[in-house]
Structure prediction request, 215 residues.
Amino acid sequence: MPKYNVCSDPWVFRESLVKVPEPKTNLVLGLDLGTNCGYSYAYVKDKELIVPEKLNMHIGQWDLSAGPYDSGALRFVRLRQFLSVLKPDLIAFEDVRYTPSEKLTKFNMHAILARAATSCEFFGALKATVSSWAEENGVACGSFPIGTIKRRATGKGNANKSDMIKACNEMFRTEFDSENYETAGYDNAADSAFVCLLALENYAKGLTFSNSEDG
Prediction:
């Protein structure tokens, strides 16, 4: 089973990093952006054949939460610090979209739109943080639609979180609890693993990101 690492301190995270296997390998990073940011990374050589079951995938979470006396901007600063410590050569992330759980009506419309606006602002800031760091450091960066990620993992574009965790356990030899995952955040880690896999597979084909539509 890959070692599962949850860390809130970029400098502590640096001490846990696996050394680069060879000078000519590239580090490909997959992210499921959020306060509990799922990450997965693996090293790959140019044009190396990707066999998912044999990948040495490193999976975990970055805790980007801010304390009661911290500035909200600290979350984005910490995300940049994690990226600077890891130094990926290619970054992919899940293109998050806000989907309300309840049906939109004239009675709840304003409340739902308010929540959507807050959520969009936060995830937009996370995307901008990753993308700007990548641009500043000459790193290729892009995203995959949620449906594309789910189909790669389970064959279904509408798979639920439990399905994604089970798929991660089967493919990457993890042992995540697929039923009681909310507090542990295993769903975030599982999503990031398949984001990383998609990026690895595209990289091996000489591509960067897929233009597949979500669905």
